[in-house]
Amino acid sequence: MNATFNIIGRLARINKFDNVTKITLATHYTKRVNDQWEDATRVNQVTIFGQSQRTYIDKMTIGDLLHVAGDLEDIKYEKDGEEVYTTNKVVTEISRLVKKQEG
């Protein structure tokens, strides 16, 4: 069984590379600070490998509301002689929920 994720957020950035596209989604939540509730933003970067999904992203606009789902992938690599651990969010599903309003 895989560990999975689901994110609904606004498309904030698209970074294209040779074999992968990384997109950044901004999500909003409310947190309590002292006795008041404040709005806050989380930034989530996800990785897209599939060519059809990468082509689909080309049709998106910064500010579109997207739903992305996929698998969490823990990886380990060496950098400057030290082991580094990280978790990748690998997209398996993507859809646009709302197109950014123009104007």
Please characterize this protein's 3D structure:
The chain is mostly beta strands and 103 residues long. Helices cover 7% and strands 69% of the residues. It is built from one helix and five strands, in the order E-E-E-H-E-E. It has a five-stranded antiparallel sheet with strand order 3-2-1-4-5. The longest helix is centred in the middle third of the chain and has 7 residues, at 51-57. It is globular. The chain starts with a strand and ends in a 5-residue tail after the last strand.
SSE inventory with pairings:
Elements: E1 4-16, E2 21-33, E3 36-48, H1 51-57, E4 65-79, E5 82-98
Antiparallel strand pairs: 1-2, 1-4, 2-3, 4-5
Features of the shown structure:
single chain; 103 residues; five-stranded antiparallel beta sheet; 1 helix
Shape: globular
Tell me the number of strands. 5
**Residues in helix, %:** under 10%
Q: pLDDT below 50 for ≥5 consecutive residues: which ranges?
A: none
Amino- and carboxy-terminal Cα gap = 45 Å
Beta content comes to over 45%
Order of helices and strands: EEEHEE
* Coarse structural class: mainly beta
Mean pLDDT: 93
The number of helices is 1
